[in-house]
Amino acid sequence: MKKKRLDEKEIIRIFSQALGIADLDDVAKVGRNLVFKADMLVASTDVPPQMSPWQVARKSIVACASDLAAKGARPVAAMISLGLPEEITRTYVEELARGFQIASREFGVKIVGGDTNAARDLVIDCSMIGMTAADNRMPKRGGAKPGDVVVASGKFGYPASGLAVLLKGARAQGAFRAAAVDSALEPKPRQAFGITLARYFSSSIDSSDGLAASLHEIAVQSNVDIKVDYDAARADGVQEFARANGLDAHELVFHGGEEYEIVATMPKSLLPRARATAKKAGCDLHIIGSVKKKGTGRVTSGRRLLENRGYLHFS
Amino acid sequence: MKKKRLDEKEIIRIFSQALGIADLDDVAKVGRNLVFKADMLVASTDVPPQMSPWQVARKSIVACASDLAAKGARPVAAMISLGLPEEITRTYVEELARGFQIASREFGVKIVGGDTNAARDLVIDCSMIGMTAADNRMPKRGGAKPGDVVVASGKFGYPASGLAVLLKGARAQGAFRAAAVDSALEPKPRQAFGITLARYFSSSIDSSDGLAASLHEIAVQSNVDIKVDYDAARADGVQEFARANGLDAHELVFHGGEEYEIVATMPKSLLPRARATAKKAGCDLHIIGSVKKKGTGRVTSGRRLLENRGYLHFS
């Protein structure tokens, strides 16, 4: 009899229950304006082979920077713990160091220390302290209210398309190819969007587990139903790319993962002020759906009920 | 031509230089009283096979708790990132969770979140925020002055003896065996010692890289010479255990590692107050050496020059 493998959700449930943590995966508030987050990158599962060492190091910082941004928090300091394979070369280590340097400048976070270890995998754990604005209560995943609009910092489907190009030889040209591949190799956390707009959010999350999973997380934690507009959420060119390669565009947009857009809800009445703030900060603000009613955490797109399925380890 | 492997010190040097961090390995000060530290445990290199899963989880918290204590900092919050092999069982995950629960209570640290991933190794990264007392400047590794005494929270040699029993079948009986094996499987960070006494320290470190390496770190960073008293530093029974098993007691005491005593220096004039504070806190305070003069970072024991050698990954 083959034992059923544990999936990531079950593992998270076991730890959350033992430690009394409601949202193990979310940013933790540890002081008045202080937040804390950690994210581990494992090269054998999280890194496409085309990713350069400096991009790997940079990417290990992206998840924390993005999670903090979704909560309106500016990074203060980061720690980097490294598990390095014994056969690692000096050049590789120097390139990793260069990637941390690049990330430190790009995301405005001081890397203040770390730890190095021998391991079978290349493992990078980034932990980050951040600070929310003084007048900010931190938006959580629960908090969406019926009547709210669902907003996002960008549109969806590029990273999954990029990974299809890099890992499965899907074909794409020109600007679409560049944008898709770039979003997979050098994801951009939406710091300006989150830091300037968080004060308007009733709930928020980053979409690193995929759009559908992120909306489900908000819907379940907030006990509401959410309606998402597929056409408004879909990035330009994804439909055509999917058709040309026999892929499912719906899958690329909703269940892709490794997407670092911020997804949030806010009262409709705050939209004009949010738009003005976004414009001033040079950010796009897309309306991609609405919160329908007190519910059971259902997410629909048109007549379709979206599955709560995104990228999960151990599956 | 075989390439020379990078050792841990070279790797730390590359990252420290790229990121402009003086002490990559030390606790980082990130606010007035706020400190930050991370430590990664990799089961394939850091865990003896006799260690139970709950002890593995507990131990992954010890290093941060110990490092903070050496700086006089009380834990505030911890994040746990996990890399878990795909074949991990539910029982193992539940036992890990129980170990985190035990550590959380024992060390007084709230575990506020985490991250889970699939990896080839079992990897646990603990990052911890702590707080020093309001009137405390944080003792660094540099700061020892000629004339200072070297103090420690305990004596040395148990963990290396315990690992010799567990990993090499060395023989030991009764109380010595229990103390040695216990120190290897369930190391005790010296929180009360560090938190109550840090205000007296001119420099401090925990001895997790071994006593000799820790003293060298203080001597080099402080630009002083240190004299250590082998008889005062050696734990009871280590000499006899070494003799009975054909081992080198000097090696067990000085170059063992995985030892979580706090080693610190302080002006001789503060000793009476430090002793009174230690007594009140129920802690031992051992004088194990003295700071001799401005120097070049030499550490001697009697006429012997101690090598700067402790536990290093990649070697």
TrEMBL record, chains A, B:
Entry keyword Secreted:
no
User: Keywords assigned by UniProt?
Assistant: ATP-binding, Kinase, Magnesium, Metal-binding, Nucleotide-binding, Thiamine biosynthesis, Transferase
Provide the binding site for Mg(2+) 1: D39, D115
CDD domains according to UniProt: ThiL
Report residues binding substrate.
D46, E258, Y311
Please provide, alphabetically and separated by semicolons, the GO molecular function terms listed in this UniProt record: ATP binding; magnesium ion binding; thiamine-phosphate kinase activity
Residue numbers binding Mg(2+) 4: D26, D67
InterPro entries referenced in this protein's UniProt entry, alphabetically: PurM-like_C_dom, PurM-like_C_sf, PurM-like_N, PurM-like_N_sf, ThiL-like
Binding site residues for Mg(2+) 2 = D39, D67
Pfam assignment, any one: AIRS
Record-annotated residues binding Mg(2+) 3? D26, D67, D206
A biological process term (GO) from this entry = thiamine biosynthetic process
Job of this protein: Catalyzes the ATP-dependent phosphorylation of thiamine-monophosphate (TMP) to form thiamine-pyrophosphate (TPP), the active form of vitamin B1.
PANTHER family (alphabetical): THIAMINE-MONOPHOSPHATE KINASE
| NCBIfam families per record | thiL
Q: Which family does it belong to?
A: Belongs to the thiamine-monophosphate kinase family.
This chain belongs to which protein, by name?
Answer: Thiamine-monophosphate kinase
Lineage of the organism: Archaea, Nitrososphaerota, Nitrososphaeria, Nitrososphaerales, Nitrososphaeraceae
